[in-house]
Amino acid sequence: MAPRTNSTDALSKIPPPLLHSMRESFSVLDRDNSGSVNAADVAEMLSQLGLTATPSTLNSYFPDGAKSINLATYLNTISDLLSGLSHPNELNAAFEAFDDGDDGQIDLGELKDALLHTAPEAGERKLTEREIDMVVEGFSGRRAFGKGGKGLNRSEVFRYQEFVASITGGGNTENGGGAIAPA
């Protein structure tokens, strides 16, 4: 992951659709509409997602040991984290290596196999199949047609262009428009 940038600089590179989504996500976390999110709010959301909400996990969501965060802090923290993501063109190029049909879809089984059997970078851990399933949920489905338009091979696919657009703020996936500018 790239080193963190100045929070204000990172926030200025967030495209408007992603910024809107980030504000909406804060509203979801702020269950009592108090204007701030506390550990109980985060614990509830993690529980709903099937994730563990240990004290150490919860502390990682609050910078400098704060008890709660407001919208501005939330936006700066999230934009700081997003600034470390690869540029959308790099992400698309990595997925395109698996895209035999040049249709923005890759075989989900092949992708899972690659992710489960590739050694992680130093300091990182391997993804579990459950984690992979959680990430691809909403971006996977059955292939409508096989290669050449034939109704064969209706395997499960991952729609990577939609995924990349979702995590980078949408926009034109062909030229990276509307995406986060590289840090």
Automatic annotation (TrEMBL):
The keyword Iron-sulfur does not apply. Gene3D superfamilies: EF-hand. InterPro entries: EF-hand-dom_pair, EF_Hand_1_Ca_BS, EF_hand_dom, Myosin_RLC. Residues 17-52, 86-121 form the EF-hand domain. Keywords: Calcium, Repeat. GO terms for molecular function: calcium ion binding. PANTHER family: MYOSIN REGULATORY LIGHT CHAIN 2 (PTHR23049). This is EF-hand domain-containing protein. It comes from Didymosphaeria variabile. The lineage of its organism: Eukaryota, Fungi, Dikarya, Ascomycota, Pezizomycotina.
